[in-house]
Amino acid sequence: MSDRRAWAGLAVLVLPCLLISMDVSVLFFALPFISADLGPTGPEQLWIMDAYGFTLAGGLITMGAVGDRIGRRKLLLIGAAAFSAASVVAAYAPTAELLIAARALLGVAGATLMPSTLSLIRTLFPDDAKRKTAIAVWTGGVTAGAFLGPIVGGLLLEYFWWGSAFLINLPAMALLLLLGPALLPESRNPAPGRFDFPGALLSITAALGVVYGMKKLAVEGFSTGPALALVAGTALAAAFVVRQRRTAHPLLDLELFRDRTFGASIGINVVAMFCFIGSSLFTNQYVQLVLGMRPFEAALWSLAVAPMIGVGIAVASTLAQRLRVAPLVASGLVVLAVGFVVLAQVDVGSSIWLVLVGSGLVGTGVLVTTTLTGDRILTAAPPEHVGSASAISETGVELGGALGMAVLGTVGAAVYHRQMADAVAGLPADAAAAAQDTLGGAVAVAAPCPTPRCSAPPARRSSAA
């Protein structure tokens, strides 16, 4: 395949990744309009936001194995068609229930796209140096979607109805369906064996249980339902591993983890996303609740860190062609750690630029690291299992993000609760409970209070949390 055709194929592959990551956050601004139009209940609002991420995480391993069997390009095109259809249904959904179902279908379709795009990069770029650059571009596309989601959502809602946030998927998916067959080569496992349906069921339910339980416990605090889901998901994951070891045709080749490069790369990805999502949980609250920015304004400010991240990825990709990858991955983790040191200096009077520098260093460290480990994951896996390997990588990212929210969110909440105990002394019981529970509650209590006794302590203490 010519270089020009390969890079054109990469451009086609980046488009769905951009949109998949945008779809996670594009509804941030649309939810109030959806609530006014469809009148969802409180639980329905939560499922409108969460159904996409849960089904995306649950389907990755299964869809990676399906792509290995039927062809990764074929699965990619099927997923693009399903993603388009679900986007139309979501845009014109007349009820909250149908919107939830459409969001769940979008997640399933997204699960077919992510491992297929990453695994096809290996086919497009057999040359090591070019593949590293291609993975850096792919990673940049995924990252750009996370940054652009709130901004695009805010802009669309200035001029159109909430359904437009879904219809932006259609042009890119149409381009993928038109150009994909010509630019993307087909690849599959030549001897896949029988599909492991019980293993697929275990994989999906285990991932759903673990991710659901972690995210709900992190956001809403302890409750019986999410805790049971987490325990059940963990048990099902153990059962999945046992089955994969015993069955003649496993859905997931656990021998991949015997390769230290593969196992270490997956572990580093989990840790990197743990740090990234966990820190974002706090920085987003700080910018909006302490500095008082509206979400759209905060999203625009977040673009200031994009050049730093872009330069970091470009430098790492260039050096990876000349140096060993391990020291570069370690350097990325050091940059990530320095970012946390900078963020630790933030208090209530800090400039927005201190937050942006810290967040930019964290983002640069994470993306440099995951770009390099992404290449190691692809090259460590045999060609017939590259789809499954890509799916494991993406599942690790989802798991790391969920752990970051659950663990760091819980730790942050505990520290905040303890340090606010003295600050709320003397307030009415209801107001004290609300202010001590969350930073948002403290802001709500402080806002109508005209005296420093009410407003100053919560603001001062929130920076320490």
Shape: globular
Helix content: over 70%
Quick one: biggest sheet? none
String of helices and strands: HHHHHHHHHHHHHHHHHHH
Q: Average the pLDDT over all residues and give the rounded result.
A: 79
Number of strands: 0
Distance between the termini: 54 Å
What is the overall number of helices?
Answer: 19
Q: Structural class, judged by helices and strands? A: mainly alpha
Rg (C-alpha, Å): 22 Å
- Portion in beta strands: under 5%
Low-confidence stretches: 450-465
Describe the protein's architecture and organization.
By secondary structure, the protein is mostly helical. Among the domains are: 260-416; 420-464, no CATH class. Helix content is 80%, strand content 0%. It contains 19 helices and no strands. The chain has helices spanning 3-25, 31-38, 42-70, 72-91, 96-124, 128-159, 164-167, 169-183, 197-220, 224-246, 260-290, 295-302, 306-320, 325-343, 352-380, 386-419, 429-437, 439-446, 452-464. Helix 3 packs parallel to helix 5 (96-124), helix 3 runs antiparallel to helix 16 (386-419) and helix 11 (260-290) runs antiparallel to helix 15 (352-380). The longest helix has 34 residues, at 386-419. The protein is globular, with a radius of gyration of 22 Å. The model is unreliable at 450-465 (pLDDT under 50). This is MFS transporter.
